[in-house]
Amino acid sequence: MSNGIPIKPHEVRGVPLIDTMPEDVYFVIIDAFNELITKHYNKPTMSSEFTFKDVHDQVKLSLPDRYDWNMEWFGVEEVYRDQGWIVQYEETAFADLFESIFVFKKRKS
Questions:
Q1: pLDDT computed for residue 1 by the predictor
Q2: Where are the alpha helices (DSSP H) in 40-92?
Q3: Rounded distance, CA 46 to CA 108, Å?
Q4: What is the three-class DSSP state of 22?
Q5: What H or E segment, with its residue span, contains residue 27?
Q6: CB of 49 within 8 A of CB of 103?
Q7: Cβ distance 105 to 37 under 8 Å?
Q8: pTM above 0.85?
Q9: pLDDT tens digit string along 38-59?
């Protein structure tokens, strides 16, 4: 089973993220995150915060209805960490009164 290459965190659940979705879906999701990071960016805190619903709604504007949604497609944290962001995702539990949120903060140099 081992091929001598360390496993990456996003591979623990199965196949790597990029290989599990059509390429056009990947680009739509990344574009949605880019749009929301820019829209919600707060210069004084060098951060951006928005809900999962914001992401879902933004993606839905561009994504054809032919796709069955896979929640793992939205797990973009590592991609953005590689680009210099500190990324947090706070997911709500069943009885929580708040929405799941993404927080992107500029990594200090």
A1: 46
A2: 52-62, 77-81
A3: 10
A4: coil
A5: helix 23-39
A6: yes
A7: no
A8: no
A9: 999 999 999 999 999 999 899 8
